[in-house]
């Protein structure tokens, strides 16, 4: 299924032009309906493409609505039938993401029956319906049914030699962990998996672990699969296995398994040393210092930061040197060594030039916060925050932090560290207000739900026209996307 309009929309999205991407895809949809008819295959493809853009900007309800429109169009023929089955699976995925597991399961049961009729159970096309059904059954806690369907999807992909077998095996292992069962189906051995399919396993397991219901579960999945994958590939130092071990160390931080993370990073450092890879060794060393700090091993962390800085001076560049100094400075500030922290952070600023605006801006924010927390006169901190805000993207988390702290200085109030909603509202206002008609909106606000979701409040000064209402809706949605994207990009 080729969709040139979607390809162009994705290019716009990657360039940070989310509003233009949506507008381009909507125009393509209108054109498809005009040229081929409302009930045409081309129009269904356009609805699916529009849904993809909505999904990528975190607008789940609109993505679901668009996919329901795509699925509702039934056209005879092999290609339209195959595409409609894909649209159904996409719909179920969006329902799953929105927590509507019962609705997702109903769609997937219907989809799987239709796939069996069209492809047969031995075709990978059937497996592409079975795998998401197993994932939805897992999310509902129906482990026995999930394991049965997952095993069938593994068999389908394995026997047909399809690369998707890696993802199916990862899902099976995730489900099996709920029973304390072996991670592979009965009689299955990775030794029997062809090399090209085995090479897909590390990435598939990492992907599954990162989307697990919680980081601890993801850690458990990787830990049980690493020995099996390493034995099938070229051991623990195989680059594909190393990437999986890196993914494990990242998840261990999210799961607050800091002692385990220290051990993982120490092992990775040994691997990078054996491979004579100074760049990766330096990054692992920096990660180790952070892990030691989080494990409350302050002296070890300080020594590791010192070694990381020496390595950055020898083998790194300005960016990594600034990063090491910034992280080290923040660590020292957290343990109350403000004089040391200030020196390190000033050195971090000095390490880079205006040609590296993100690194420079982040270092300026870090120093500004330390100075403000230390009760210094606000002039220097305010200037640091102002210049950092100009350097960083509006949605960058450090820019959000700077706006909140700057407002506290200007208003003479307390530090804004605990007021995430106020800081987010500052950034949200900066994204929205310049892009809506003057005199239309009053106060804007962002509220954080208990689950960390962003909730928007928009005060209207007057009743908007239909066109103005559409403008407000579009600008608000894309501002939220930009905020979420910035947070994810910099903090996962």
Topology of this structure?
Elements: H1 4-14, H2 18-36, H3 41-56, H4 60-72, H5 78-97, H6 101-119, H7 124-139, H8 143-160, H9 165-177, H10 195-198, H11 201-210, H12 215-232, H13 239-254, H14 258-274, H15 278-294, H16 298-315, H17 318-334, H18 338-350, H19 357-373, H20 378-391, H21 397-411, H22 420-432, E1 441-448, E2 454-460, H23 466-491
Antiparallel strand pairs: 1-2
Description:
This protein is flat. Among the domains are: 64 residues, no CATH class; 74 residues, GMP Synthetase, Chain A, domain 3, CATH 3.30.300. It has 23 helices and 2 strands. Helix content is 73%, strand content 3%. With 492 residues, it is mainly α. A two-stranded antiparallel ribbon has the order 1-2.
Strand content: under 5%
Main sheet makeup: 2 strands, antiparallel
Q: C-alpha Rg, in Å?
A: 26 Å
- State the share of residues found in helices, binned by percent: over 70%
Series of H and E elements: HHHHHHHHHHHHHHHHHHHHHHEEH
- How far the N terminus sits from the C terminus, by CA atoms, comes to 32 Å
The CATH topology of the domain at 419-492 corresponds to: GMP Synthetase, Chain A, domain 3
How are the strands of the largest sheet arranged?
Answer: 1-2
CATH architecture of the domain at 419-492: 2-Layer Sandwich
Name the structural class.
Answer: mainly alpha
Mean pLDDT: 91
Number of strands: 2
